[in-house]
Amino acid sequence: MKFPYLSKRKADNISNGVFLILLGILFYTKAWWPGILFAIAFTFALRQYLTGRRLDFFITIIFIAVLGFITLIGMAFSFLFPLLFIVTGIYLLSREYRYQNGVIRLKSDDADNRQ
Questions:
Q1: How far apart are CA 23 and CA 103, in angstroms?
Q2: How far, CA to CA in Å, does 72 sit from each of 7, 67, 81?
Q3: Cα separation, 44 vs 60, whole angstroms
Q4: Which UniProt keywords apply (predicted)?
């Protein structure tokens, strides 16, 4: 079977349903921090897995693991969380650009569809 397993619409519906379930659990447990971050990250990871974006899925899983590790050992949130968000933001921006012949260019949607 070839990736993607599901269409984007079906993957969105499933991941949105999972997010609502996780949100309901957060309402009952009242564990909003860092529970909401885990819920959002898990929802993104599920959507990426279902649509076949393997690299993004693994990076999101690593993000969840680092977030859980920081939470469990009680590291300084004022330093590590902003750093984690900055690194993730740089990654998200950098994957939209490509380096070719010494020039950095924005990836076009047409090039993404041909791959």
A1: 44
A2: 36, 9, 13
A3: 7
A4: Membrane, Transmembrane, Transmembrane helix
